[in-house]
């Protein structure tokens, strides 16, 4: 039912855009940013990667503003590629990379912390999220991963001390974050 509704929505958008504008043959849609939206949240809603949204809208950072219009490209080729790049825990995602990292933990309540991740996630309002801070040159922001001893998570944050094969796992409770300590763990990057 969701696929049928999605297909009808895409068909209507194609009709609207091709009748009113000279667009390419690829189906396009536009998302109007609402208060509280983040690129990650929008990427999950529309099943596209944060990287693609940034690229299609010439964004240099993950900062977005209410009422901003973001273009979301949804051609059949892009949709097929996106389906393999945004796996979930239950769809049999394949591992694209696997390596050992040094892992520490962090909370949303450290000194000087706002609780807002680099991708705009509010960890204070969403303490159950599984988020890791990464070096984006090693693991791209928005990537789904599996961290040994932590579980499935999203690479949604960065940190000043996170360089190379180091990660920080988000743990909402300060004492449990201290208990995590520093560990060498295996990270599986999913695609």
CATH third-tier fold name of the largest domain: Barwin-like endoglucanases
Please give the order of strands in the largest beta sheet: 3-7-4-6-5-8
Helix-strand pattern, N to C?
A: HEHHEHEEEEEHE
The structure class reads alpha+beta
Main beta sheet: 6 strands, mixed, barrel
How many strands appear in the DSSP assignment? 8
> What is the CATH superfamily label of the largest domain?
RlpA-like domain
Shape: globular
Relative helix content: 25-40%
Distance between the termini: 26 Å
Any idea how many domains? 2
Instruction: Give the low-pLDDT segments.
Output: 15-28, 74-91
User: Given this structure, which CATH class of the largest domain is correct?
Assistant: Mainly Beta
From the coordinates shown, what is the CATH architecture of the largest domain? Beta Barrel
% residues in beta strands: 25-35%
In short:
This protein is an alpha+beta fold.
Give structural notes.
The chain has 191 residues and is an alpha+beta fold. The chain is built from five helices and eight strands, in the order H-E-H-H-E-H-E-E-E-E-E-H-E. It has helices at 2-20, 39-46, 50-56, 76-85, 174-180, and strands at residues 28-32, 69-73, 95-106, 131-133, 144-147, 151-157, 166-170, 183-190. It is globular and about 45 Å long. The two termini are 26 Å apart. Mean pLDDT is 78; it is low at 15-28 and 74-91.
Per-chain topology:
Elements: H1 2-20, E1 28-32, H2 39-46, H3 50-56, E2 69-73, H4 76-85, E3 95-106, E4 131-133, E5 144-147, E6 151-157, E7 166-170, H5 174-180, E8 183-190
Parallel strand pairs: 3-7, 4-6
Antiparallel strand pairs: 1-2, 3-8, 4-7, 5-6, 5-8
